[in-house]
Amino acid sequence: MKVDCKDLPRFLNGGMHAREKGRFRQHLGGCSSCEARFEDAIQLELLAQEALTPESSSADTQLAQVSAPKEPRWPRLLLRGLEVLAVGVAVWMLLPFSLPWGREEGAWLSAEGPRVLEGRVTYRAVDDRHQPYVPDRGEDAAHPPVPPLPLRDLWRMEARGDLHGVATAYLLHGAPRQAQAFLKRMPASADRDCDLALLALEQSRQEGSLDTRPARLEEALELLDGVLREWPRHPQALWNRALVLSELGLPLQAADAFGEVARLGEPGWSEEAAHRERVLRESTSTRARAWKDAYAAVRELVTDCSAPLPLAEAREHPGIVRLGFYDAVRAAPSREEVLRLEPLARVLDERYGGSVLRTWLAHVAERNFVHRGPLSRLYARLVLGSLAPVGEVMETLRRSGEEDLYLGALVLADSAREPVDSQAVIRLARASGDPWMRVLADQEQAKLAQQEGQWWKAEQRLLEVLDTCQKQGLVYRCLGLQRRLADLYLSQHRPAEAFQHAWKGWARALEAREWGFEQQFLQELADVARYQHAFTTARAYLEESLSRMPEDCAQRTHVHRNVALLEWQRFRPEAARAALERAMECERPLGLTGAWVVSEMARSVPGPHDGALLRRALADLRRGTVSPGLEALLLVIEGQFLLEQPGTSGRELVHRGLEMADLAPDSVDARKARAFGYSALLSEAGRAGAWEEALALMGHELHVEPVAPSCLLAVSVQHERTLVLVRGPLGELKGAYSAGRQVPLRDEATGLVPAELVKELSGCEHVDVLTRPPVHGLAGLLPDSLAWSYRVGRGARGVPARTAPSMHLVITEVASPPSLRLPRLAPLTPPRVPDPWRVELRGAEATPTRVLSEMAQASEVEIHTHGLFSASQSDASMVVLAPEADGGYVLTADKVRQARLSHAPLVLLATCGAAKTAPFPHESFSLPMAFIEAGASAVLAASVEIPDSAGAFFERVRERIRAGARPSVALRDLRAAWLLERPDDARWLSRVLLFE
């Protein structure tokens, strides 16, 4: 059934059946036109009610609306005449929408019948009595029409201050935005946060978009975890947390939360919770058991020649059965045992199409088993793990002439992290003529390219093969490719792209019932969430993966070492230490993550055996071929740990790591080594009060040499340690160092610079600010009364000379994709003075490709359009432009980075949140930084949402700069003048930042 805006009156007066109501509720959440009409109806209804209720006090005339503008101070006589007419029309139109007024207020909130929401609200009148929830599956008696909103009751509830009741009413009637507005007007409390979390869950369901759902669900999970830290038995928070976890696809975590509710003993609620817990556990265990049984059945063929053929399992789980089928054929020691597998080959061929497996089976059956038989038994021992795929065994198989056995042994060796002849894998896999094996060859070629530092070649290869794989329907192999791509993007610290493949792979694994890949993608998603600082979601993914395999020692080590890092990043050192101790229980190497945590914790929660633990982890990481970038990182990790041990060579190791990192500037590991190494050295210099040494280190790291001799601020934050350096107008260097930070930096740096050091800058005309991640790009570092900018070095890239204006490029009135439902921005005011260099790009012409092409020759660039942040699409904010022929419409930091702006333009990003910086610990990644790297001389952008009027502000700043004012001075002075006229703009104006 199509949802139409003309159905709004039926929705308001309760004339819809359950199915229609559910559809229209989703429509209302995303349709700005219907939302506006919805609010207008409320205004008219309440105006009518005010006229018909003479006893209403003036306080009762507050309208139940979301964010109504303040009433203009027009002449009252004119207004009263208009109101009389409006009241008459409103009474006639809206009386059908109202319920009888003579009943008890609030009773309508807990009407009989099934409850409207699956989640639980904290408003007592609704939640005190349990009502069953029946999913909306159609128009039946179980779902009578939802009664209309009794607006008179809402009006009275708001008048007496019952904001919670009004918010609950809006939530139950499918208006989450209105509900949110009222909840945010309430004082902070556990109940308010619980209801806000339920709103985020409902919005994620309404939007249903890959781009927004994870962020909404992370928001909900964060709010609920905050409630449960203070109130561990909060029933609604536990219930709603279970729903959020279930929405994320984490059934065992959801079952645990429902189990907590069941144990609270609430009438009705506990019974429903116990039922939900049981269903979640049973469905998950059934799916797991089916996959494990299929895997065990095909694996049994390797050891038992009389084992039944898993034909039914092959139809249900063709991926894992085909994987085991290859080993079963290779391990068969006689022609008869090979041919016995022919029915299984036939079933798998039918599933995938073609006859490749039967052809291969027939070829193997013709081999000389006097020669092959003993080799097959040898191979079976490799599969079972009683023999290691190294040394003489591998050489025997290589020389045997049985190429399928050698290929299988190479795959087993790679899985065991043993050195592998990659060229042999590629040659043998391609020679097999099997599409399944050709994917293996391409994966190996991608791995070689990545090992050689050519990650872009690996990316291209994997993307091409994935496309082919999907067309051939090789689902199991496609899942492996998507996991490889997620790993590749994470190795390049590109979590947004990693998320795309991890999330799609996770959904596809669930659909294909591939339990093993489900487990792998859970861990990929945990890594992505951690990179994006979605720590609560990351931990939920990790704990779900552990719940699935609690007996697996390698799994426990992996989960607990990652939990240790999460807790450290959340400034919970004791919890991090506890998780690390649990990771060590299996006595397995801790990997790179664990090594980093041990090195970090040496400053505050050291353990007596940490030195030996770190040495073992580093030795394991150095097995096989180690790239220069990784070796640089390992040296920095070890050196940082030793800096906390008296009389050791920690400083020397860090310097060695930095020297090696400089030899591999394109390596992400090397960039991390550089950032972490300088962090350690700067903190050490700060702890010693060596201000000059610290400033020299920072200038060298940021490629800003020489640093300004006066009017300079430099800031470095290393987890709990903060170093601030200042040079005032006279050039005297002063500093402050502390090691007491207890919370992560968020989106603001207000208060980071001590007040006494801010005073040192009071006489400066302009202040150069040198910062490193995670401070770089944060608002509030210095007061608005100072003219300052983030100073960005360029390293080895040449700085183009700033030229006289060649082209003033203005992107405006962009035809953004209709699917985004973005409001139309107000057109720019025409230039106040003639501008011969002005060139406008507007409408459908303003595509990303066209904008990038035109910017290359511009000396001034203004972009007036919508900004967008989606953690699933880009790690920094994006600019919304007109769609290309292929549908692409965003200008991302990655695309800008690759551009070359030959005229060193001034860039004004008049888009919402354009200065938002990715939370990367090793580099500053944002749109302004990308423009600077591409060649811009200065970039102006805001880190928050901005109003339409911001376009005029940015343009006037540009006019002042063209007239000769320094950019930071122009920004400061115009901001002060603008605030005198528009004091309500203070919040966004103070978050307009300058990068030079």
> What is the CA-CA span between the terminal residues?
54 Å
Poorly predicted runs of 5 or more residues: 48-104, 138-142, 795-799
Structural class of the helix and strand makeup? alpha/beta
* Oligomeric grouping of the chains: single chain
**E-strand count:** 14
Account of the 3D structure:
There is one protein chain. Strand 1 (712-718) and strand 2 (721-727) form a beta hairpin. The longest helix is centred in the N-terminal third of the chain and has 35 residues, at 269-303. It is built from 43 helices and 14 strands. Strands 7-6-8-12-13-14 form a six-stranded mixed β-sheet, with helices on both faces. It has a five-stranded mixed β-sheet with strand order 3-2-1-4-5. It is globular. With 996 residues, it is α/β, with parallel strands linked by helices. Helix 8 packs antiparallel against helix 9 (190-207) and helix 29 (553-569) packs antiparallel against helix 30 (573-583).
Write the layout of secondary structure elements.
Blueprint: H1 8-12, H2 18-30, H3 32-52, H4 76-94, H5 124-127, H6 151-159, H7 163-172, H8 176-184, H9 190-207, H10 213-230, H11 235-247, H12 251-262, H13 269-303, H14 311-316, H15 318-331, H16 335-339, H17 342-352, H18 356-365, H19 369-384, H20 391-399, H21 403-415, H22 422-431, H23 435-451, H24 455-472, H25 475-491, H26 495-512, H27 515-531, H28 535-548, H29 553-569, H30 573-583, H31 591-601, H32 610-621, H33 628-643, H34 650-662, H35 668-687, H36 691-701, E1 712-718, E2 721-727, E3 733-738, H37 755-759, E4 767-771, E5 788-790, E6 808-814, E7 838-843, H38 848-855, E8 860-864, E9 867-868, E10 878-880, E11 890-891, H39 893-897, E12 906-910, H40 927-934, E13 938-942, H41 950-962, H42 967-981, H43 986-989, E14 992-995
Parallel strand pairs: 1-4, 4-5, 6-7, 6-8, 8-12, 12-13
Antiparallel strand pairs: 1-2, 2-3, 9-10, 10-11, 13-14
Helix pairs in contact: 2-9, 3-4, 6-7, 7-8, 8-9, 9-10, 9-11, 10-11, 11-12, 12-13, 13-15, 15-17, 15-19, 17-18, 19-21, 21-22, 22-23, 23-24, 23-25, 24-25, 25-26, 25-27, 26-27, 27-28, 28-29, 29-30, 29-31, 30-31, 31-32, 31-33, 33-34, 33-35, 34-35, 35-36, 41-42
